[in-house]
Write a structure and sequence with these properties.
Structural class: alpha+beta
Number of strands: 13
Low-confidence stretches: 1-6
CATH architecture of one domain: Orthogonal Bundle
CATH superfamily of one domain: Malate/L-lactate/L-sulpholactate dehydrogenase, four-helix barrel
CATH class of one domain: Mainly Alpha
Shape: globular
Mean pLDDT: 95
Number of helices: 11
CATH topology of one domain: Hypothetical Oxidoreductase Yiak, Chain: A, domain 1
Strand order of the largest sheet: 2-3-4-12-5-7-8
Length: 344
Amino acid sequence: MAEKHGLQKERLGFEELKMLLKAIFVKNGTAAETADILAENCAACERDGALSHGIFRMPGYVDSLRSGWVDGLATPDVTALGPSFLRIDARNGFAQRAMTAADPLVRRAVRETGAAIVAIRNSHHFSALWPDVEPFALSGYLAITAVNGLANVVPHGGRQAVYGTNPIAFAVPVENAPPLVVDQATSVMANGEVRLHALAGKPVPEGTGIDHDGNPTTDPHAILAGGALNTFGGYKGSSIALFVEILAGAVTGGQFSFENDFTGYPGAQTPKAGQLLIVIDPNRGGSMNFEVRLACLCAQLADAGQDRLPGARRFANRAAAEKSGIPIAVDELQRLRALAGENA
């Protein structure tokens, strides 16, 4: 039912939204298995209020598929290089399909050896990172991942973009509570958030980025049109962005962010780069009550005055959506149905 106040919205159940998104992916040349994985990922982002990585991304997915830049039919090639190390060539497909292929092997490695490392290359990642690590935390593991992308971030003291937004994420289990999940770009703001500001005609905060000439700007259009984002925390954030570039672009054998070249693929948006995933059984480190220890740490943070733990807002949004549905603007829903080939 459409809401009566403000911008008209309809509320969809998670499975209903997922099936609509899956239809879009299949219609645009994605294998059914891959379409199911991507649709669940995108619907989960929308459900949890991670709007910069939800249905907002669908036109970018579609344009990348239609341009031939990404192969929606690719099957990842998984190679075990040892009891704890997996190497995956995504073969120009989506990173989530590669991650899904690795999942059972990762879990077996962690059970048998206490840790697993996954190096993914030739992959396209166009989503948030928390969906990649949260499932492992729900199984009692610590998981950390990093991915690089399209060069749109200037190194501290530099004059042109070299890094991607280079996000890093980790998740850990907490006793009698949802997992603690951190997912953040190493840029001041995620590129998707800049694009949302541009669509809304809103300036970004000072210090977010520079224009084409290297001048500081609060205009999101100027940042997107040949400018670049800054790293958070000055040279310290720049160092972390560099580390992500090494982990995701060098260790994996993938591309560096500045090596992405969309020439000949008009409309393509998904960066082709690399991703590193590390999963650890935290109790192997000597603490046989890791989740209890994490609950103690979280309680201390609350006592110190931290009003919200990382991931808490997403879990609250998830609970609300599971009860009342996922709110989607009517015009956005119409566009999604058109992409799926449905009648308006």
